[in-house]
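User: Assemble these into one structure.

Assistant: Restating your components, then the assembled model:
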Amino acid sequence: MVIQQLLNGLTLGGIYALIALGYTMIYGIVKLINFAHGDVFMLGAFVGFYVAVHFSSNFIVVILVAMAFCMLLGLLIERTAYRPLRSPSASNLIGTVIMVGVIAAAAFLGRNGMNTLFTSAVFYEGLALIGVVIFLLAKGKIRVKHAGASGTSRINALITAIGMSIVLSNTVAIINGPQRVTFPPVLELGSWNVAGMNISGLQLFIITASLVLMFILYFIVHKTKAGMAMRAVSQNINAARLMGINPDKVIGFTFALGSALAAAAGVLVGVFYTVADPNMGSMYGLKAFVAAVFGGIGSLPGAMVGGFALGVAEVFGVAFIAPAFRDAIAFGILILVLIIKPTGIFGSNVKEKV
Amino acid sequence: MLKVKNLKTNYGKIQALHGVSINVYKGEIVTIIGANGAGKTTLLNTISGILKSSAGKISFNGTDITNVPAEKIVRAGLVQSPEGRQIFPLLNVEENLQLGAYLRADKERIDEDLRRVHEMFPRLNERRKQLGGTLSGGEQQMLAIGRALMSKPELLLLDEPSLGLSPIFVQQIFEVIREINSQGTTILLVEQNAHVALQTADRGYVIATGQIIMDDDAKALLKHDSVRKAYLGG
């Protein structure tokens, strides 16, 4: 019974860990809690679902397409939502305006279908408005102002992240409808009965896959030039620039990596629990965030250990205390960590330099 | 090689540089001395592209590099070893040095330069696998200079290399600076320690409240009355 639950816990924990890595990487490099990260995970599940239903039921294809899609999405979110806050230039803001237009058009299309788009007045009004704004930005008629002190701009980024989260989940809700979708079986691995326990091949696969992805990430961060640049930017951004490192590129790379891992987690959840819904991002996202804090935000091993620990704790709580405690356990852990060791397991005390 | 003309830089509404002009010619060691808050670091950071200037012009080897982003300026061969060393504390010594060569792809030359840095600072070779943050101040300064050399600079900007170092280390560091210069790298050196800076340099500028108030041969500045009074302790 305990071992059976441990297996369940590690499966869930592997998923939390994959999502938590994204939180922790992005925090490590731009000091931003990217609350849209859970929704990138949700989109990964949905892209996987659409690929599986419409194109290919090959698991490898499904997961790779979802990861590639979310990589681009992560880059796009960084480029259009967060970068303009760091360096508010007209060209950066034009990207943001175009992104807003594309999201609005996608939502409109999802709701009303292709035929109505070009015949509706709203479409042309929107297009005209976007055109005017871009024109004014390009001509310098709209002046952009920097938030100034880093404290203010960090809060701006945090609010933007929450906004981005709402935009993503609602766009999917409009296009797909708010109901959940059922994943087709793209990966069937059977199960074995060992000593009275039911060991599912899928669970073993998920645990292995998450460990493999973590190992790949660890390799990228510690053994490649790009990974070294990531660590350099997270430790001292100005010194990194003096080495010729372009921080914007490194930050984009970090978002792409984190989003790909979240997408993989999304597909794994879809395959294992067989459902996906537009709001799943918030709960998984919050719990993975708890896992990242538990392990020590900013620390990669912390996110991995925190994810697995939280998964196991949650499943044990459900099995041995009461199912209703499922969510309470994760957030109870968050409260305890914040009281006892706010820096988490692997976190170190950060000295604020004067 | 480096021409700075009438450069102005602001922090918000406060103006830190009030029209600074300096020249650095190939092969020289030029020093800028001045008190705390005179604008020395601001000047270097504006040249390096970390700060944006509000007016004036910077050109390097005939190309205009005013307000070009820092990461592109490094590519042109203008490299800064920043004030307070700013090494990467959680990377080891070797990784810090490799980051200096971030923009380079010629692996053999990089290894060659790594050997050269190790010859110059044998201590860095001994501590290859140690984290940058655990080094002593002097070792960190060696690492910062070594890291800058790994970028293969034509012009090396050094910001306060003597800061916080014991007199013995200061002597060592300045010997190395002369050695780097004799191997063909032009050097622009910013220092509060005016005495050792002027002894090392060919020419010097004196900066006060964001303006150049004097420039001359380093030897002449060493003997100059007002320089002696203000910066050399009488």
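The beta strands of chain B are 2-11, 14-24, 29-33, 55-60, 63-64, 78-81, 155-159, 186-191, 203-208, 211-217.
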